[in-house]
Amino acid sequence: MNLIDGKKVAADIRNELKEKISKLKAEEKNVPGLVAIIVGDDPASHIYVSSKGKACEEIGMRTKTEKLPADITEDKLLELIKSYNENKDFHGILVQLPLPKHINEDKVIETISSKKDVDGFHPISVGNLVIGKDTFASCTPAGIQELLIRYKIETKGKHVVVVGRSNIVGKPITNIMLQKAEGANSIVTIVHSAAKDISYYTKQADILIAAIGKPEMIKADMVKDGVVVVDVGINRIDDPSKPKGYRIVGDVDFENVSKKASYITPVPGGVGPMTIAMLLSNTFKAYNLYGEK
Q1: SS3 category, 235
Q2: Is the pLDDT at 43 greater than 90, yes or no?
Q3: pLDDT tier at 124, thresholds 50, 70, 90
Q4: Which pLDDT tens digit goes with each residue over 240-266?
Q5: Fold topology of 28-116
Q6: Annotated catalytic residue 244
């Protein structure tokens, strides 16, 4: 069993970007910029946004966080987004989800310029992904593909089984893996809660991507020997033996499935660190494609 170290790969990506941005600064050129907009006081959202800001600072990327009250009107939020659509110093716009119930998330996502859609959620980005055009892929799925590429895991002609059909992970990784491209060109099955027997499909997987949000749901008897396992799940379960009274586990029973896997991602430390790394990468891409140098 080989452990897929997402922390190391994410650090490599950040260092590569840091070197590129250092060269831009040395040439006295504009540098990539990312603005994060957060509405309300959700502690988890603030932690996520703070970590994204720190990652930007570490690599020399311009960063700004707009902290807005939970009762802000939808119109005012949309006005702020439109102002950043026109702001030449910021090449990526991230609106932290979820939003308060009185704000339409779809409308917010669609208001972000597709040229600054570094989260990869805009319908134009999603459509381009489906038809195989170069675009901003949502960060977690893009990170999964990057791990497969950097670990030189063969994907061409391999059977990829995706467990879960969310718009954030399941659907986009399905579309990424079936494209005729490096780190893809796979035969893809997507399986979800409507399946009578999920294990019927997971046992067929050469590469299994678990993103269903159920702790340790994928057991050893649900996979074949030599499978590559990518565990996207982050679940908190009670554990009185831990100082905090809980521990974090994935959607895969790591202890037992790892004995059959050829490669597997740990939780934490696998896919998670890649999400922010790919957000930074998407922002640099937006700068290269549309920014003023």
Answers
A1: strand
A2: no
A3: very high
A4: 888 888 899 999 999 999 999 999 999
A5: Rossmann fold (3.40.50)
A6: no
Domain ranges in the chain? 28-116, 139-272
5, 117, 119, 251: the active-site residue = 119
- Active-site pick, 96, 158, 179, 285: 96
Residue 96: active-site member = yes
Amino acid identity, position 42: D
Q: What pLDDT shows up at residue 136? A: 97
pTM, two decimals, is: 0.95
**Burial class of residue 56, CB neighbours in 10 A (0-12, 13-18, 19+):** buried
CA 288 to chain centre: 20
Q: Which residues 6+ apart lie within 8 Å of 157 measured at CB?
A: 185, 186, 187
Domain 28-116 matches domain 139-272 at the CATH topology level: yes
Length of the chain: 293
> Is 145 one of the catalytic residues?
no
* CA 270/CA 227 separation, integer angstroms: 16
139-272 CATH pick, 3.40.1350.10, 3.40.50.720, 3.30.70.260, 3.40.640.10: 3.40.50.720
134's CB contacts (< 8 A; 6+ apart) are 128
Q: How far apart are CA 91 and CA 34, in angstroms?
A: 6
